[in-house]
Amino acid sequence: MSRYAEIYQQSLNDPEVFWGTVAKGLHWYEHWDKVLDESAKPSPRWFSGGMFNTCYNALDRHVEAGNGDRLALIYGSPVTEQKRTYSYSELRDTVARLAGVIASHGVGKGDRVIIYMPMIPEAAIAMLACARIGAIHSVVFGGFAAKELATRIDDCQPKMILSASCGIEPSRLVAYKPLLDEAIDIARHKPTTCIIKQRTQLAAELQDGRDFDWEGSLSQADPVDCVPVEATDPLYILYTSGTTGQPKGVVRDNGGHAAALLWSMKNIYNVEAGDVYWAASDVGWVVGHSYIVYGPLLAGCTTVIYEGKPVGTPDPGAFWRMISEYKVKVLFTAPTAFRAIKKEDPQGAYMSKYDIGCMDALFLAGERCDPDTLHWAETMLDKPVVDHWWQTETGWAIAANPMGIEPLPIKAGSPTVSMVGYDVRVLDDQGVEKPAGEMGDIVIKQPLPPACLPTLWNNEQRFVDSYLSAHPGYYLTGDAGYKDEDGYLWIMSRTDDVINVAGHRLSTGQMEEVLAGHADVAECAVIGVSDTLKGQLPLGFVVLKSGVERSADELAAELVKRVREQIGPVAAFKHIAIVKRLPKTRSGKILRGTMVKIADGQEWKMPATIDDPAILDEISSSL
Ligand code: COA
Ligand code: AMP
């Protein structure tokens, strides 16, 4: 049996011993009563009875062990031409003072705080400061519009919002404060306090009594100590796209989350204390939570906050410059970033300008990694390129190549094998396991390992309906695929209306709700079509109300603007086809799958249940 197989089996056979041993690598104020409480509802809980603080484990623990001078965080910002570093002591002290600011406004254990920030160190500091006092943070990605922010404000009802005056995209400054003000206007719930980091590129107007200047507040604050919380208390809520306009508030706990991330740093990524680990993502996504902030710091590594893009800031050599300058050992990003670099620097001319010998491996996730991109990256880097598969819901990899245990042979297109604690199965509609090589629903047998979501914020019923009801005893991932003869997983597509655009998870159902709200639209359908750069792009089909006679270009522009204003630029919604009718089954279900095949230029069969076959020709010609 391989070393990986042995460890994996141990984790399934005796999860209590396995995770109990991992958790000994962390600091506990009080030992847990049970490693795994299977009686908890709606899902089993990890380390119940244990008292814990994630910020203490990420920062203070290292300082108190004598490693305060070690580099904790590097900020590299090609868009502002700035660099800054924080040692573990400096980061702990700044976090403790911001925690003092937050607490001084009456925010404490269990209160929610929204963080709406660009990629600056203050975003990570804000998350850690909340964790320090047991407040539950909810980070909202900067590319979302005010309405999306308002939806999250109403759902998690924060006492406070931490934000900045602006973000910087290559083509424009993103004024955050007007978006924040608009969101608070729209929301029914009103936070009492906002703390705003003023950036030199754009100053924000502060509202008397509600808004406070970040630096001014920090200069007057007293540092506060970590507050012990239950291991099972929420550390954060992170909203992710589901099938409707209402995003799902994924809840993450403290103790189990820290244990799983700590295990993953050594065993999956093969990094240790003192190594520089860079996840080129955004704190607004789960990758940013787990692998820009918590994972690397829990492991005592140096993490990198990069405010820039893989290309255009200023060129496709940006990643290699960062890697050589900061001696990055592991880079983690989305395949789309590599497709962008490949497009602009196919021969690797920019790469060859830098010495990237310090780098051991590249990890990719967030979307399926097409074999072409994987092979190109392998050839250019001459290093292992590791695809791994996970979701906001799980918080860490479900399947990966465990580089710190033993590198397994790489099969392009597969994220390799199940990680510890994940008993992954492939089932048919009836819940029967599929033989190797055959596609089905990918599910995980309960209990899910530590860090995976115990519920959805404010909506236990939706948690049960979305994830636990389709196949009793199993968690439904929403992905379809298969396992091969060697136990490798192949993740091929989503089984719901979620699409993946540039590694960003988006809901077509949500875009349909926005289009359907336009006065001239009778019916619509949004599908994800293949795109060589972003993986998928949304494409909207719109049927107009009878009697509406409008210029197609004018209407399309209005609809594009509407999605940008109501969901945000991150939706990358730019393509609309105005059609006379939508193809449906005789029972009225829109044939989205067939529309995707037509739009992608793939072979397709006339569905037996189609109401009127002529409509598919109309769809083809509208494209
Ligand atoms: N704040 C405000 N706007 C943002 C934003 C942010 N944090 N992030 C993206 N946007 C905007 C972009 O400016 C763009 O706006 P535009 O339509 O005016 O050009 C829009 O949202 C779409 O962004 P994106 O899909 O990211 O496209 P892009 O053209 O800006 O960049 C890539 C393309 C491939 C370079 C970029 O997507 C990338 O680096 N991806 C890495 C993947 C990643 O980080 N995934 C996260 C999970 S690992
Ligand atoms: P998110 O919750 O934003 O991380 O998106 C999770 C979804 O992205 C998964 O359910 C998959 O559909 C897709 N995904 C993420 N990583 C991979 C991968 N390595 N291979 C295939 N699909 C992936």
UniProtKB/TrEMBL annotation:
The keyword Nucleus does not apply. Residues 4-58 form the Acetyl-coenzyme A synthetase N-terminal domain. Its EC number is 6.2.1.1. Keywords: Ligase. Signal peptide: none annotated. Residues 511-589 form the AMP-binding enzyme C-terminal domain. One of its GO terms (cellular component) is intracellular organelle lumen. It is an enzyme of class 6 (ligase). PROSITE patterns: AMP_BINDING. One of its GO terms (molecular function) is acetate-CoA ligase activity. Residues 65-447 form the AMP-dependent synthetase/ligase domain. InterPro entries: ACAS_N (IPR032387), AMP-bd_C (IPR025110), AMP-bd_C_sf (IPR045851), AMP-binding_CS (IPR020845), AMP-dep_synth/lig_dom (IPR000873), ANL_N_sf (IPR042099). Belongs to the ATP-dependent AMP-binding enzyme family. This is Acetyl-coenzyme A synthetase. It comes from Candidatus Thiodiazotropha endolucinida. The lineage of its organism: Bacteria, Pseudomonadati, Pseudomonadota, Gammaproteobacteria, Chromatiales.
